[in-house]
Amino acid sequence: MSATARREFLADATLSRAGDWLADTLAAAFGVRGEPPSAQRSVWLDSVDWRLLRAGLVLRQTGRSPRRELMLESVTGEPIMAEPVSNTWPSIIDASPSSALRTRLAATLGVRALLAVAEVDVRRTHARLVDGENKTVVYATIEDPRQLQPQPALLPVRITLTAVRGYERELKRAADLLCSVSGIEPAVGSTRETAFAAAGRPAGEYSTKVDVQLDASAPAARSVATILLRWLDIVEANLAGCSADIDTEYLHDIRIAGRQTRTLLKSLGDVLPPGIAERFAGEWRWLSTLTTPTRDLDVVLLGLAGRSDAFDISGLSGLEPLRNDLARQRRTEFRRLRTGLASPRLTALLRDWRTALTEIDPAAAPEVRTDDVAVHRLGRAHRRVVKNATMITSESSAEAVHDLRKRCKELRYLLEAFASLYDEKARRRVVKDLKYLQDQLGDVQDGHVHRSMLTAFVHSTAGGPAPAATVLAVGALIDRLDTRRHRAHAELAGALRRVTDAKIVARLSLRTEVAA
Fold first, then answer.
1. DSSP assignment string, 453-511
2. How many Cα neighbours within 13 Å face the side chain of 373?
3. Distant-in-sequence, close-in-space partners of 164: CB < 8 Å, separation ≥ 6
4. Which of 112, 182, 279, 413 could share a disulfide with 263, CB 3.0–4.6 Å?
5. pTM listed for this prediction
């Protein structure tokens, strides 16, 4: 069958949802022979940040318990693999039994949980269109979809006409007759896309990028407020998932947005109307302090589970008591975190912060252009990186390394905030150099932090002394952390040269089409 031998249409929900109207519409040209109806329940699954869809994959659960199946397909509908499933959603794919499908999904999803994006029941009415000789020339299917989750809704009726090979002319005639009916029009998108939109989750709509187009000549106060509002949106979008503890990335995204906000308040607060930065800086610091303990434990637990590169656990056994102890600490800290996220203090912070940003009057702020602020503050942030970097040696303390790492993050966050003003290729090159340095600094800093955490466990008397096998395994883990930390220290010189080069900022030329 050729690729052009299929036509799809959507019918308005006011159209009769029975199939009789199809015969009435097409009776002038065809005989209509009914076929047995069918039904299917589909649950489309993806992570909150659409990792499968962005990788060109679609995951669908079909059937009802206990006979449910996961079907992995390409975005164009080609089947890839299918396996029985017993999970309930949301769920981390690692919770599934080991299988080829789990391995395939884990490689794309990482630590993110699968969510049920939309659940739809589809009842199908099938028919054959026959010519005067009673030969089947076109197959017709009417899909009557009803969305069940996240909220009940009737979706548009979908009519699919498929020609028997050699009868494309009859397909066109049937399509023309359908198009003559009020409320029927050619289909745009798939049932899946329609369901996603009806669920309030248009495919691919979640992102943690700034994604704002700044006007280089606009008042800087307006541009900074626009960027800060974007980070506020990200915080608010992740609160429910974080409180429900669906996966660890909800908290991670909140922390990134919070750090971006604090960086902009510190570096650009003076371009806002007087008093705003001072009023809110302390509250954003409080949110950072609230979220830090749980996130630190998440990083270690993910590493000990082999789901991140925080630790090299290959060949080590006996670590279960360590995991159990850290999981216990994490449960305690998460209860505190959840209480804080539900507190009136956070509610007031987010509400008042949005109000303050949306009500900013650029006329009440210093009169300075956005591009002038971008050039000046990026240059200043880079000079701070250079100043801290020149003091780093192989003997530098963890605090000195951490300070440089913070300065690098500030520069990187400013680059991301003003991304739309700069040449993309040059900006990406600078960010790449910064990220490489941050990775080396992170290995050094995290090595100190994780070493202290592991050492504290070995010397802790809570719950009694650790088994000898565990002590040996933790000791081996500490040795590996030390090796990694020393290797990162050795690579710092080259990474520092790339970032402290005075030409790094010169490469960041403003885009002429927005700078004018």
1. HHHHHHH--TTSPPPHHHHHHHHHHHHHHHHHHHHHHHHHHHHHHHHH-THHHHT-PBP
2. 26
3. 136, 137, 138, 139
4. 413
5. 0.87
End-to-end Cα spacing for the chain? 55
Contact criterion met (CB below 8 Å) for 37 and 180: no
pLDDT tens digits for 111-144?
999 999 999 999 998 999 999 999 999 999 999 8
- Reported as half-sphere exposure (CB side, CA atoms, 13 A), residue 18 has a value of 4
Structure tokens at 9: 């249409």
Which residues are CB-contacts of 214 (< 8 A; sequence separation ≥ 6)? 223, 226, 227, 370, 418, 420, 421, 514
Region label for 290, one of left (φ > 0), alpha (ψ between -120 and 50) or beta (otherwise): alpha
Tokens representing 132 are 């005067």
Is the Cα dihedral 328, 332, 335, 336 positive or negative?
negative
Contact 199, 182 (CB under 8 A): no
For residue 57, list its beta bridge partners.
Answer: 74
- DSSP state, 267? H
Report pLDDT digits (tens) over 344-372: 999 999 999 999 999 998 777 778 999 99
d(CA 63, CA 327): 35
